[in-house]
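Hi L., both proteins are below.
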Amino acid sequence: MRAIAKQAEAERDRRAKIIHAEAEFQASQTLVNAAKILSSVPAAMQLRYLQTLAEIGAEQNSTIVFPMPIDIIKPFLDLFDKSGKPVGANGADRAPLMKDIVPLNA
């Protein structure tokens, strides 16, 4: 009797593993399809990213770390490197003095 019970349990485990594997395969196919759609429309990825941030932000007591793409930051880093001097917090050290400004109608 125990042998029959063990055999039945093994059969249930086998079926469960098959069902799980099929579900994983379907999930991976769905992810591939989603990736193809998102890659075909550049704005779609940005919208999905913003939607994810909105979902995270809807939860209470959540902190969102907003990563900044390096291609957006790079021009500012290049400006900083070219100047060779530190930039003030508000950029005041780069602002022209009023005496240096030439009026447009002069």
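That was the first. Here is the second:
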Amino acid sequence: MKYLLIDTREKPKKITGIVDYFDSIGLIHESTKLLFGDYMDFNRPEIVVDRKHNIAELAKNCTVDSARFVRELERAKKAGARLVILVEQNRYKTERDEWVSINQLPDIMYWSSKNTTIRGEKLFRVLRSWMSRYDLDVQFCSKANTGRKIFEIIYSESEKK
């Protein structure tokens, strides 16, 4: 039986579309405090999804909040879980005003933001380093498809095991 747990720190107003998707497919879910990540199946805790609003939030986790985020990665590693960071952004505009689609991690290389000092290339290097030390993956999706993508990650990954 599929029984999804959602971290209580996920703000209800921010995840309405995600929860609506879960309800539309009849997925049983409840909110509870998770030690790491935001979404996991009660019966399959080896795959956990950590949702990020956008690349800027991910960049903050890699710079200002890196000590806290590394502790989260350590907790996932200790639990034997694979952590998948799901970024709700599948494209960005470069400094040259060109749109770049994000299909995989290297696609963030030209990302930048006026709100942070880290640039895409550095962010890529930090994440690749963490991926080599932890069972970590980074994926991207559009905000409209977040619920579906969370479901696919948790249930298709855990079905393979």
